[in-house]
UniProtKB/TrEMBL annotation:
It comes from Virgibacillus profundi. The keyword Acetylation does not apply. This is Nucleoside transporter/FeoB GTPase Gate domain-containing protein. The keyword Membrane applies. Keywords: Membrane, Transmembrane, Transmembrane helix. The chain crosses the membrane at residues 43-62, 138-171, 210-231, 243-263, 283-306, 318-340.
Length: 346
């Protein structure tokens, strides 16, 4: 089959070269013009790339001093009150400072060991989507909020910490009811035993790898696709449709599209550069949306593969739970943008 596709590609390429020899060069020029400003100007030669590395270092230092363990031990008792297996909160709590892929690899086996039901494992996935998939997104988002004079404390409390309680409760009473009250015999420990100096240097390496080996390649691939769509003349209509929907639900359209399709880290970095006259509701909505499990290819690709491997769930079940979590996150962004914003602007 692939041989046939390969032959067709060769024929089409030769035909295009014969009939329109300049079209391929124009296509590559369009793609490069899409990719270069983001990869080079934003991530490699501006403060954004450094902010990604610094945020990882700060996050790992906080983890080294017990932040993640403290967070888990605060939220675990609340799950017992709700008669939900306390292990469901572990991936979300870890994800706030960690990485969404690592959260699945580490927390998935813990859920299985704690005898969490399939419903509780789905609650864990949906709740994890409420947390920022990178600490860099959270840090850059704080910078944007400060620029627009938006009080960050209540927003962080309601958009990042409150969902860790509210989402499991709502889902356990509606969609995923097969939950049970259990007591974890022994809570896992997430505070590394490495020395502080080693933590700093290893986290600097991790931050650099995150920037160069994860964020930039992912951004490059997506903007290549956008360049192809733009060359084909259909991207503008797609972008306009998405922008209309996002504006309607109080999310700044430009950065909202970037959060969905490219990288929330880039979105919050761009958020600081939008016009100062923009409605603060759009800034709040964009911040809440970006601090989630997006972009969409992580939700439907990476997360299902990791969780299906480390839990009792099938990939389809993981995708469904993740999308439910994403719908809740979009609703949260809309509600907080409309209701909370008047009390946040200083």
């Amino acid at each position: 089959m692939f041989e046939v596709i390969g032959v067709l590609i060769v024929i089409v390429s030769l035909t295009v070269l014969f009939l329109a020899p300049d079209s391929l060069s124009q296509l590559f020029d369009t793609i490069i013009k899409e990719v270069k400003p983001v990869v080079v100007d934003t991530f490699l030669t501006s403060e954004v790339g450094i902010a990604v590395i610094v945020s990882v270092i700060v996050g790992r230092i906080l983890e080294r001093f017990g932040f993640t363990d403290g967070l888990i031990r605060l939220f675990v008792p609340i799950m017992r009150w709700f008669k939900i297996n306390p292990s469901v909160i572990i991936p979300s709590a870890y994800n706030i400072l960690g990485d969404i892929n690592a959260a699945g690899k580490i927390a998935g086996p813990i859920l299985v060991k704690a005898k969490a039901t399939k419903a509780e494992q789905k609650i864990a996935v949906a709740t994890m989507i409420q947390s920022p998939q990178s600490f860099a997104t959270f840090v850059l988002g704080l910078i944007a909020l400060t620029i627009f004079g938006i009080n960050a404390f209540p927003l962080i409390l309601l958009s990042i910490f409150a969902p860790l309680i509210v989402v499991p409760f709502i889902l356990s009473k509606t969609i995923y009811r097969d939950t049970k009250k259990v007591t974890l015999d022994e809570l896992p420990r997430f505070t590394p035993k490495t020395t502080l100096l080693k933590t700093i240097f290893s986290s600097a390496k991790e931050g650099t790898e995150l920037l160069l080996l994860v964020i930039i390649p992912a951004v490059t691939v997506v903007f290549i696709l956008i360049g192809i769509l733009k060359f084909a003349g259909i991207w503008d209509s797609i972008e306009a449709s998405m922008a209309s929907i996002l504006t309607l639900i109080s999310i700044e359209p430009g950065t909202g599209i970037v959060s969905f399709l490219v990288a929330p880290t880039l979105a919050v970095a761009q958020l600081a550069d939008v016009a100062a006259t923009i409605d603060p509701r759009l800034i709040v909505g964009s911040f809440v949306l970006a601090n989630s499990g997006l972009p969409i290819y992580v939700i439907v690709g990476q997360i299902p593969a990791i969780w299906a491997e480390s839990t009792d769930l099938r990939e389809k079940e993981v995708i469904t739970a993740a999308l439910i979590g994403m719908i809740i996150r979009i609703a949260t962004a809309c509600i907080l943008a409309y209701v909370l914003t008047p009390f946040l602007v200083t």
